[in-house]
């Protein structure tokens, strides 16, 4: 998916350069073209496409936290060993 985004930004940069270098164009128009045709739609599209992978990463993190809550790799148990009492 990143190759499509890179290709689209390449096209938008060329559009912005054409706008800026044209006889009747302006650099302000080129910047607006770059923002409105390139960065804003591209960032929204990449955010929407990346949602499933972010959701899966969150599930993996939650699953690993349930298995090993402290992250130390030691088995869970009492923090202090029980003391044997004489009857």
3D shape: rod-shaped
The counted number of beta strands is 0
Give the biggest sheet: none
So how many helices? Answer: 2
The gyration radius over C-alpha positions equals 27 Å
Give the overall average pLDDT.
Answer: 85
Instruction: Assign the structural class, choosing from mainly alpha, mainly beta, alpha/beta, alpha+beta, or little secondary structure.
Output: mainly alpha
| Share of β-strand residues | under 5%
**Low-pLDDT runs:** none
Terminal Cα span: 71 Å
* Share in helix: over 70%
Domain unit count: 1
Order of helices and strands: HH
Describe the structure using short key phrases:
2 helices, 87 residues, rod-shaped, mainly alpha
Quick structural gist:
The chain has 87 residues and is mainly α. It contains two helices and no strands.
Structure, described:
The chain has helices at residues 2-21, 27-67. α1 packs antiparallel against α2 (27-67). The mean pLDDT is 85. With 87 residues, it is mainly alpha-helical. The radius of gyration is 27 Å and the shape is rod-shaped. It is built from two helices and no strands.
List the helices and strands and how they pair.
Elements: H1 2-21, H2 27-67
Helix pairs in contact: 1-2
């Amino acid at each position: 998916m990143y190759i499509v985004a890179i290709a689209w930004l390449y096209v938008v940069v060329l559009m912005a350069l054409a706008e800026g270098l044209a006889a009747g164009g302006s650099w302000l128009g080129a910047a607006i073209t770059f923002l409105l045709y390139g960065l804003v739609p591209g960032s929204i599209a990449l955010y929407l496409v990346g949602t499933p992978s972010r959701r899966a990463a969150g599930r993996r993190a939650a699953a690993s936290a349930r298995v090993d809550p402290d992250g130390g790799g030691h088995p869970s148990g009492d923090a202090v060993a029980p003391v044997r009492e004489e009857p």
